[in-house]
């Protein structure tokens, strides 16, 4: 990905990192998805002892996405837009 002759890997990495800050993110959902991914990896490797954590994180993701969607709907209704 960073094999351009004029741009070093380090500079390209810094540019991507800087550009990613401009993108809108829901940090909580992103963190939860990363945690879920790591738990699934541990489960596949046979190292996960607390399997209930997977279900718990999935519910937290759904809860956060629901809150986000409800806030969007309220914002759209307040601005007079349709859903």
TrEMBL record:
Tagged with keyword Ribosomal protein: yes
GO molecular function, one term: structural constituent of ribosome
UniProt keyword list: Ribonucleoprotein, Ribosomal protein
UniProt xrefs under InterPro entries: Ribosomal_uL29 (IPR001854), Ribosomal_uL29_sf (IPR036049)
GO cellular component: ribonucleoprotein complex; ribosome
Pfam annotation, one family: Ribosomal_L29
UniProt record similarity statement: Belongs to the universal ribosomal protein uL29 family.
Protein name: 16425_t:CDS:1
